[in-house]
Amino acid sequence: MHKRITRSFLIAASLAGGLLSQSALAADKVVYQLDWLPGGDKSPVYLGVQEGFFADEGLEVRIASGRGSTDAITKIATGQADIGSADIGALMAAKAQDDSLPVKAVYSIFNRAPHAFFTLESSGISKVTDIEGKKVATSPFTSSNAFLPLVLKDNGLADDAVQLTKADPGALGPMLMNGGTDAIIAWVTNIALFDSQAKITGNKLVVLPWSDAGLELYSSSVVAADKFLSERPDVAKRFMRAYDKSLKLTHDDPTKAAEALHTMVPEVDVDVAVAQIGDSMKLIVNDVSERDGLGALTEERVALTWSRVAQAEKLAGDALDPETVIDRTLLEAL
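Above: the chain sequence. Below: its structure as tokens.
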């Protein structure tokens, strides 16, 4: 009797082990495309991998670095990635010019604009209107450049109110600290970086977010390939459940998120990542998310975003029905 029980137990254990092994082998693979290099603002997806949130959903996630929203959208549209992050404004502009673009926005990451003027207290610039007649440096690649004329106009300034210079992104901080420019244009996700440079040089940083100066819109979002959404809807839903969980934990425990990022990308400094997460969270968890919900893509704010994007890109307002770039299926499944 004892031998029969032992034998039955061994058979059952063997079968269970086989099933577990088969389950591990059967994990659904997903490629997540970043729109830039790894940093604190990208940490939720890394935290989800390290904490096993994606694995718990039966997913094996590979993360790919990117070089801007256009690059990310292109890779997702051409099947090189399934889902990823990109500026919804870039997606709208691309869709307005190519209606066949097979990519949708499925979840808002930044529900407020990340663009800002950075200056020093010694410059005397304390509000956006003070920027008139000043030297301003910006990267040639940033999406902020398209919105600059709108911010100037919203604040009663002419398009040529500033002396604009374009420079390598890495040169912007030194230019500001050394007096080579009165202000620079960058994202508020970089406050920690420029603040540390200011302190080292004995300066005090002043940040003027464009969202406080009238620029209201969605920005960085999770975007996905139409093919991924239509052919693997269950995988997509499981991915977003894990991502949503990761984003919430990133908010609650920035250090854990930064350490997860550092584990997978050792060159990223934990302290810098923690600071970047703190700056990024102001664009994610705020009055908009309290009103509409985390990740929400409301019809009203989507329309407002398109209105601003169309103005910035000089596109006709009727060139796009902004709802055609939105898929709320995954949000509704959370």
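The radius of gyration is 23 Å.
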